[in-house]
Write a structure and sequence with these properties.
alpha+beta, Nucleotidyltransferase, domain 5, elongated, 6 strands, 19% strand, two-stranded parallel ribbon
C-alpha cells in the first residue's frame, strides 16, 4: 500500500498471498506511471523491499527513507491506516480469498477517501468535499451505507 502523507490518500494498493521484492517493485511502477513518482518514499525494513525493489527506486529516481528497526512510530500515517483498516473493516468480515479482500479494500478506501473524516486534516476527508448545510425547508436526514453497510454517511435531503 502506498499513501500520500499530505492528505492521507491511498495512492495504490494490491493484494497477493506471496509478496516479494520483485512484486513490490512492480507495484511502484503501477502506482507512479510515467513521470509521476515522488521525490521520497518512506518505508520500513520489511524483506519485501529487497534488491529488485531498491533498484527500481533508483531507476525511478526516488530517494528512499528507511525507518529505524522496530520503530513503527516513524511512519505513523501508514501504521494508523493499517489499524483503521483492521478495526473498521476486516475485523467484521470473513475474507474468502484474494479477490474478496481486494473488493473489501476497494470499498473501504472509497469510504476512507470520500466519507471518513480525519482530525489531522482539520476533520476533512482525503478527497475534500464541500460542507453540507441544512436546507431551509423541512429537511430529513438520510443514511447512505458504505463498505457493505459496515459504515454510513448521513446527508440532508429535502422532505418529500
Amino acid at each position: 500500500m502506498i499513501i500520500s502523507h499530505d492528505r492521507r490518500k491511498v495512492v495504490h494498493f494490491n493484494v497477493t498471498a506471496n509478496p516479494s521484492a520483485k512484486w513490490t517493485a512492480q507495484q511502484l511502477v503501477e502506482a507512479f506511471p510515467w513521470d509521476t513518482a515522488p521525490k521520497y518514499l518512506l518505508r520500513d525494513r520489511d524483506s519485501i523491499y529487497g534488491g529488485a525493489f531498491r533498484r527500481r527506486l533508483k531507476n525511478m529516481t526516488i530517494n528512499e527513507v528507511v525507518t529505524a528497526p522496530q520503530s513503527p512510530w516513524q511512519n505513523p500515517y501508514v501504521e494508523r491506516l493499517i489499524g483503521s483498516i483492521r478495526r473498521d473493516g476486516l475485523d467484521h468480515v470473513i475474507v474468502l480469498n484474494e479477490n474478496h479482500l481486494k473488493q473489501l479494500l476497494t470499498s473501504y478506501f472509497e469510504y476512507y477517501h470520500n466519507d471518513r473524516t480525519h482530525c489531522g486534516i482539520d476533520k476533512d476527508t482525503p478527497i475534500a468535499r464541500p460542507m453540507q448545510h441544512r436546507p431551509v425547508n423541512c429537511a430529513k436526514v438520510i443514511e447512505l451505507p458504505r463498505v457493505g453497510g459496515l459504515h454510513h454517511r448521513y446527508e440532508w435531503r429535502q422532505a418529500a
